[in-house]
Amino acid sequence: MPHFRRLTPLVAVLLLAPAVRGQDELRVQGLTPAGARTTLTESWGVLEFIVVNPGATPRDARVLALFPEDRAVQYGRDVWVPAHTALTTWLPIGPAPKQPTATGRELEYLLYDRTAGTDRLILPPADGERVRSRAVVYRSPEPSTAVLLDYPSDDADPEHPNRPGSRAAEAMAFVRTVRVTAGLSEHASSVPAGPLPPIAEAFAGIDHLVVAGNRLAADPAGTQAVRQWVRQGGRLWVMLDLVDPTVAAPFLADELPFEVVDRASLTTVRLTRPPARATDREFDRPVDLVRVLPGPADQVLSSVDGWPAAFARTVGRGRVVFTTLGPAGWPRPLAARDRPGPTARPDPKAPRPASTGSLAPLEDLAGEVMGRPKPHPFTTEDLRPLLTEEIGYAVPGRPTAALILGVFLVALIGLGVGLRRSRRAERIGWLAPAAALGAGAVFLVMAETSRRAVPPTVATAAVADVVPGSDEAALHGLFAVYQPDSGPVPVASAAGATLDLDVEGLEGQARRRIQTDTDAWHYEGLGLPAGVRTGPFQATVQTGRVSAVARFGPDGVEGTLTAAAFRDPADGLILAPAREPIALRLGPDGRFTAGLADVLPAGQFLAGAVLTDRQQRRQAVYRKLLSEALPRHLEGRDLLFAWAEPAAVPFAGREGARAVGTALVVVPLEFERPAGGTRVTIPSAFLPYRRWLEGRLQQPTLESSYPVEMELRFQLPPSVQPLTVERATLTVRARGPSRRVTVGGLADGRPVTLTEVDNPVEPLRVEITDQRLLRPDDQGGMHLTVSVTNIGDGPFDTAWRIEAIGLEVVGRTGQ
After folding, report:
1. How many CB atoms lie within 10 A of CB 694?
2. Domain around 411
3. DSSP 578-632
4. 185 partner at 20 to 30 Å CA-CA among 144, 288, 424, 430?
């Protein structure tokens, strides 16, 4: 009996040890979609979860999430959890597999304790299940809008979004109205309170993000994630009447590129969008207006009393739209849901319904924020030839193959002749196959030697869109990894790059994408066959301050390119709004010039009659990117393009692997004003033109079967205004059988004919020196006329066509 009492504590410890150990085990809570989108969809997303460490020692934990449809592909996060701590964190998860219109999606997840240096799987409680699973909300892909609102800590606060009549509630209603105006459903989600995940994947499933509060002021990591998302092509709407300018500044550049003058309260709103007529609208409750002086790169969409009500600018590949007028000041169609019911009592404090006034400003805003641009034909696949060049792996060429085959044939003929003379012709039966095997062996050795001559390599070919005023560039391109032998490849990134690696032939291979820090991740278990494996990628990288500053001079454009992290820029060109590429003469110190003689013919994007293989590949990329309608983020801008080598590649491969890359750097061109009295030459590429008809600018008619007479308005660059024009040269390339092309101008409001040509074949080139025809209007526009008329009585079944119109100007800047 005494012995039993002595053993009782030990037995109790042994019996209770599993329970005590279970209480100290790591636990996972949550694992729900987070960030700007709180549902999973067929794009990248983010899961938020809590790791609980109830023990007395710190633990290294790994959480893996996977879809049951493909358990081999796992997405994980490594975290260090202090003792007695519950740590909230996140992990990025790849696109959900396609499914019907169900609203739910099952996720499975695993929890590992890695404290001892090995992965110890922590099983669920003993409830009969071996796999942890969780149901999450799923929504099928559609244009989606998320709204960042301020959430006061007190639900009873009058400005809480859930309180009717609050400014946040009005902003939410306005967002829904804009969505409906854009032809979308009115569904828009508000982002839950709290900090945002600090990675751009948190916004991958969002098409439009609206900032209608100052919550990001206390969330610098979330602000940086939004900044990167915008640079990669996101569309952001900032309501300046609800947002402090200091909160909005990081989305654009390191400094705010526009100036906030003051804030005003209006009871009469005259919202205009030229050329639409303005209608005065009265309000019982004042409407807020933030009065702003926009920057040179801002496009004003509509205005109130001369102040912008909405303006937009391109940032990297994305677009940022600002509204300065409160939601109540915008016109809104009176939908059925807005009409009061038969027993409803009107709220005397509510603004009057906006059922009158032109809806054009609202439609312009909806199109700018939520319009769906057509996909551009240029894709990352068009960069593949450049990747092949960077890796340098190639099979033996045709001359080498021809030489080997020639030697084989000569040897075969020699064997036949020799054996015939020696009367041993029967030996040809085994000597000929032996010679063929020898030739094949030569091919095999040469191919293997060529393949092994290239070390393991990671390479990128990308378009780099520089963000003016910041030290960043948005990369969008193609990644490749090359290895001479089959085996594991530890692909990794420390720059927050998003990679969709080609996994064809890897089905069933267990592989993990592990996030270890905000911008750092790597693959585990990724095995690739020998050769090249590629995939599209995007990243926002630090490049230093890249800029292109130019001015007009006597011989055309001159300026300086500061390339920072991009080395050896070459094969550059300038593209202005008139869409005529100009070859760039670029010096080793970054100075460049581009004159009248550098304007490139149609379809040509590099100067020179003979191009190297590399230049031909680069010109093919230019042609695909610039020949058709430009991508939206390049439209209407002065841009400098140059090919360069980036200082660093945002990926790493196996230890000792070579890292190479090439990039087409796209830099917005900033023009400085020349000194007063400077003689300047302006190439036609910098003088875009539109048709002037009844006081409005319209697209010109460049092809028709009917006669036309057009007054064309050519816009002088703002940096040279006011300008005294000394002479101009108008060039017209037209094709039209049985047609007469007439070029003229306006002298004191009356038409003046300069030249007429019947059945034009060669380009018309008209020198204009009459000062009456060279006077710009108040906004710097020069007006000339071009008409196409029929010769004889017809019939005129064949259409005429104007292939190009351009105006070159020489003048002096004002003092």
Report:
1. 6
2. 394-453
3. T---EE-EE-TTSEEEE-GGGBPPTT--S-SSS--HHHHHHHHHHHHHHSSSPPG
4. 288
pLDDT along the chain (815 residues), means of 10: 37 38 78 87 91 94 92 94 94 85 84 92 70 81 90 78 86 94 90 89 90 93 92 94 92 84 91 73 90 91 92 93 94 55 40 56 92 86 89 60 67 64 61 68 58 78 92 94 88 91 86 93 92 92 93 95 94 91 92 92 86 93 89 91 93 88 95 94 93 88 91 94 94 90 88 91 91 91 93 78 93 89
Residue 516 burial (CB count, 10 A)? 15
Locate the DSSP E strands across 759-799: 764-768, 781-790
What does residue 247 show for φ and ψ, rounded to 5 degrees? -75, -35
Residue type, 493: S
Instruction: Mention every residue, 6+ apart, whose C-beta is less than 8 A from residue 426.
Output: none
Task: Quote the DSSP letter at residue 772.
Answer: G
CA 232 vs CA 297, 313, 315, 509: distances in Å: 19, 14, 9, 31
pLDDT the model gives residue 365:
93
Contacts of 257 (CB under 8 A, 6+ apart): 295, 297, 298, 313, 469
269/279 Cα distance (integer angstroms): 8
pLDDT of residue 18: 42
Is residue 104 classed exposed, middle or buried when 0-12, 13-18 and 19+ CB atoms within 10 A define those classes? exposed
Which residue is it, tokens 């890359």? 661
Q: Are 697 and 794 in the same domain?
A: yes
- C-alpha span between 197 and 317 (Å, rounded): 22
Distance in angstroms (rounded) separating the CA atoms of residues 493 and 659: 12
Candidates 573, 634, 628, 635; CA nearest to 599 is 573
In 484-587, the DSSP E strands lie at 487-488, 492-493, 498-499, 511-515, 521-524, 527-528, 531-542, 547-553, 556-562, 566-575, 582-583, 585-586
Residue 216 and residue 359 in one domain: yes
Residue 123 lies in a domain: yes
Same domain, yes or no: 201 and 230: yes
Looking at residue 341, its pLDDT comes to 35
Q: Any alpha helices (H) in 356-487, and if so which ranges?
A: 360-370, 384-391, 398-421, 428-453
In the beta sheet, which residues pair with residue 110? Answer: 64
Residue pair 73/60 in contact by the 8 Å Cβ criterion: no
Residue ranges in 187-278 assigned as alpha helix (H): 220-231, 245-252
* pLDDT for the residue numbered 357: 55
Domain membership flag for residue 549: no
- Indicate if 177 and 300 belong to the same structural domain: yes
Q: Name the DSSP class of 254.
A: S
Claim to verify: residue 130 and residue 160 sit in the same structural domain = no
